[in-house]
Each structure stands twice: as C-alpha cells, then as structure tokens.
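Bench notes, afternoon.
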Amino acid sequence: MNENTGFNAIRSMDYVIVLCDDLEKMEQFYSDTFGFQVEDREPGRWVGFRVGTLFLGLRPRGRAYDGPAIPDESAAIQLSFRVPPADVDVAYQTLQEKGVEVIEAPTNQDWCHRTLFFTDPENNIIEIFADIHPQDTASKPSGVHKLQGI
C-alpha cells in the first residue's frame, strides 16, 4: 500500500464546524469580535467565515449524532488563532474595549507562545497566540514586550 494514501494523504485541515445552540448570537460574536466577514450563509442552518486558509463554520446543534448541548460553564472545543507577537496585546485591548471577558490575559508561556484566552458565548475557549523566542518564555522573561510599550 502506498504510504501517501487514505489518512496518510492528509496534508491540511480545510474547515472546522462549531456546533451552536444559538446560531445568531454566535455569528454576531465572531463577526463583531474578530471582524470576520461572512463568506457563506444559509439562514438558520449555517454561517461560514474564511479565516486565512481555514473555513470556520457555525451550525445549529440538531442532527441525531450531535449529542446534547454542552453544559453551562463547560467548553466543547478550543480554537487557536496565530498572530504576530505584538498583536496578542492589541487583541487583548480590543477585547477589553468590546467588554469580552478574558479568562487569561496575555502571558508568555514556557512552550514559546505568548497567549491570550477568552470564551465565545457558548463557552468554547478561544486562544490568540504568537510564537515567541525561548528567551521570552514565562520561566525566563526578557521584558521585550514591556520595552515595546505593549
């Protein structure tokens, strides 16, 4: 069997579908918070955004195999979006201006990411992150972000 067939032929992820209990509220959040433009819509059934090369779709929970709604205060998924390092802090400022509750402010992590965490209206975890140099990790902060006035 060829090594590049079947599952071994996968080279990228093309789209992610987020199951929603309130499609309109979720569409408004992703449009207003991120500024994502709707690329595809079927009212009451589907909303899709283009995020770089990935298609992010929202659809109501309702198919037999979707299962029950996620309990309040529980996350179903985590979506992570990469930005340049300074933009993690810009995103944080934007969230504050829009009144979005942040669950973890910008932090330099030991795994060489600067991260920001918040949730969407249905408690899915959203991460904004940037790759950072190992010298900027939490265990050995360099102060670079402070020097940039961010």
